[in-house]
User: Which sequence fits this backbone?
C-alpha cells in the first residue's frame, strides 16, 4: 500500500500538476504536496501524488557505501581463504 | 529503472549478507521487526531470509493497512456501497477483504453496488465532478504515506464547492502502533512478543521524517533504522541494526537518506494537520483498541466526512476463529503456524486479511516462500 516509485519529471503541466516518466511510461500526477518542482527532478510517486523528492547525491552516497562494504567483504574473504 | 535497479544487485546483497554473518554474535539472537508490509513483501520476494544467518530472525509487523483494518470497517464500506445513489471509490487492495456474511466489496459489486477501483484519490474526485447527481464516497485507508493525498482531495473538493463528495476516513498512524506493540510486550501477557530492533518504514518516513521515532527509541530502548524498500536497503538496515544491538545502542538511524530527512515533508504534514485530527482511539485487527492511533476529518470539513453524512455505525466483529491474522500482526505467529494457510485460505479465496494484499504477511509468504523450508525460530 505504501509502495511508491522514483519517477523523473518531464513536464510541468499547470499548477500542482506534472508529467512524469517511468521507463517510457508517462503519466500526469499531482505535485500539490511538493514545492518548486522542476523538469529533471526525481520524485517519489504514490497513488498519483508526489510525496517526496529523491536526492540523487544521497543515493550516490548510499551506493558508494555499498561498494566500499563490498570491497571490505572481498578482503575479508581473501584473508579467510589464506 | 533508475534508483531501483542499482539497489537490487545480487552480488552486493551477498556481500552484505556475509558482513552481517561475520558481525552477529555466534550465540546471539536478533529478533528484528519490519513494521511495514512493503518490507515484508521485499523480504519474501527477494528471499532475503535465506541470505541471513540463523541468529537473525525477521518478524513481520502490522504495517499493512488492509491487514489491520477490522472487519467492522469493511462492513461499513459495503453498507455505504449498497446505499442507493452511492458510488464507492476504493483502492484495489480493499476489494477482496473478507467481511461479514461472506461478503466483500467485490461481491457487493456483483450484487449491484457501484464500487469503482481507483488508482488515486484524485480519480475519485473526478468521478464526483463527472456525476453530480450521484453521491461519491472515497474509502480512504492507509498509513501516513497515503493520508496527504486524501487531504489534498478534500481541500480540492472544498475549493470546487462539490456537494456530492465525501471520504470514509480510516487513516492510521505508525508510531502509535509501534508504541502499542511495545506496551503489549511490557505487559508481558499472552500478547507480548520480544523485538530487539525495528526496520522503520520507507515512505511513511518520507512524510513524517525520522524525528517521530526518536522518543520511541529512547523510551523503549529499541534501535530503529529507517530503510528503503529495495533488497539492498533492507540488508544494509539489518546490518545497521545488528551493529546497534552489538554496541548496546538504541538510536534512530536513517538508511533511506535518498528520500527521508529528519523533519520529513513539512508541506504534507501541514496539509494533513489542516484537514485531519486525532481520534481518541481506533480499533485495529490484531492490536485491538489503540489510543490516538488514527485520524478523523476535522469539523471544518464535516461536509466531506462520510461518517457524518451517512448513518454508518461501527460494529466490532470478531475475526474468523480459524484465522491467525491477529497473532501474525502482533509478530507472535508465522503464516505457516496457521492451519488454514495455503489450503482453505489463499489469495484467491482469503479467509483473513493478511492473505489479501500482496504486502500482507500471509500473501507474501504464499506467493514467494511457501515452498522454502521454515528457518528455526
Assistant:
Amino acid at each position: 500500500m505504501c509502495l511508491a516509485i522514483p519517477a523523473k519529471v518531464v513536464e510541468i503541466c499547470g499548477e500542482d500538476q506534472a508529467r512524469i516518466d517511468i521507463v517510457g511510461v508517462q503519466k500526469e500526477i499531482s505535485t500539490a504536496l511538493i514545492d518548486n518542482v522542476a523538469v529533471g527532478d526525481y520524485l517519489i510517486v504514490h497513488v498519483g501524488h508526489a510525496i517526496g523528492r529523491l536526492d540523487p547525491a544521497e543515493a550516490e552516497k548510499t551506493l558508494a557505501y555499498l561498494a566500499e562494504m563490498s570491497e571490505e567483504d572481498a578482503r575479508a574473504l581473501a584473508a579467510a581463504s589464506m | 529503472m533508475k534508483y531501483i535497479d542499482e539497489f537490487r544487485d545480487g552480488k552486493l546483497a551477498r556481500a552484505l549478507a556475509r558482513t552481517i554473518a561475520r558481525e552477529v554474535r555466534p550465540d546471539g539472537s536478533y529478533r528484528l521487526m519490519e513494521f511495514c508490509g512493503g518490507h515484508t513483501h521485499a523480504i519474501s520476494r527477494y528471499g532475503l531470509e535465506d541470505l541471513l544467518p540463523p541468529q537473525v530472525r525477521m518478524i513481520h509487523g502490522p504495517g499493512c493497512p488492509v491487514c489491520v483494518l477490522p472487519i467492522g470497517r469493511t462492513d461499513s464500506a459495503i453498507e455505504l456501497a449498497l446505499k442507493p445513489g452511492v458510488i464507492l471509490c476504493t483502492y484495489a487492495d480493499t476489494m477482496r477483504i473478507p467481511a461479514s456474511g461472506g461478503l466483500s466489496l467485490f461481491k457487493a459489486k456483483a450484487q449491484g453496488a457501484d464500487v469503482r477501483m481507483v488508482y488515486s484519490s484524485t480519480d475519485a474526485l473526478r468521478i464526483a465532478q463527472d456525476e453530480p447527481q450521484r453521491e461519491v464516497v472515497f474509502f480512504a485507508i492507509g498509513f501516513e504515506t497515503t493520508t496527504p493525498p486524501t487531504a489534498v482531495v478534500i481541500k480540492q473538493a472544498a475549493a470546487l464547492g462539490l456537494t456530492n463528495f465525501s471520504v470514509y476516513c480510516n487513516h492510521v498512524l505508525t508510531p502509535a502502533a509501534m508504541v502499542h506493540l511495545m506496551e503489549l510486550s511490557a505487559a508481558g501477557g499472552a500478547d507480548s512478543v520480544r523485538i530487539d530492533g525495528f526496520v522503520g518504514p520507507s515512505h511513511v518516513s518520507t512524510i513524517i521524517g525520522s524525528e517521530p521515532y526518536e522518543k520511541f527509541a529512547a523510551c523503549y530502548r529499541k534501535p530503529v533504522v529507517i530503510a528503503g524498500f529495495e533488497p539492498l536497503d533492507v540488508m544494509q538496515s539489518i546490518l545497521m541494526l545488528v551493529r546497534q544491538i552489538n554496541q548496546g545502542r538504541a538510536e534512530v538511524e536513517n538508511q533511506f537518506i535518498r528520500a527521508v530527512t529528519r523533519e520529513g515533508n513539512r508541506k504534507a504534514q501541514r496539509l494533513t494537520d489542516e484537514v485531519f485530527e486525532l481520534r481518541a482511539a481506533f480499533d485495529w485487527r490484531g492490536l485491538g483498541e489503540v489510543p490516538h492511533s488514527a485520524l478523523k476529518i476535522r469539523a471544518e470539513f464535516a461536509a466531506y466526512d462520510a461518517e457524518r453524512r451517512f448513518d454508518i455505525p461501527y460494529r466490532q466483529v470478531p475475526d474468523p476463529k480459524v484465522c491467525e491474522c491477529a497473532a501474525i500482526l502482533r509478530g507472535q505467529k508465522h503464516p505457516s503456524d496457521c492451519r488454514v494457510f495455503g489450503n482453505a485460505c489463499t489469495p484467491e479465496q482469503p479467509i483473513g486479511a493478511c492473505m489479501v494484499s500482496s504486502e500482507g504477511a500471509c500473501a507474501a509468504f504464499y506467493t514467494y516462500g511457501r515452498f522454502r523450508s521454515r528457518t528455526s525460530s
Notes: Residues 5-81 of chain A form a domain with the SH3 type barrels. fold (CATH 2.30.30.140). The longest strand of chain A covers residues 5-12. Chain A has one domain: 5-81. Residues 56-81 of chain A form the longest helix (26 residues).
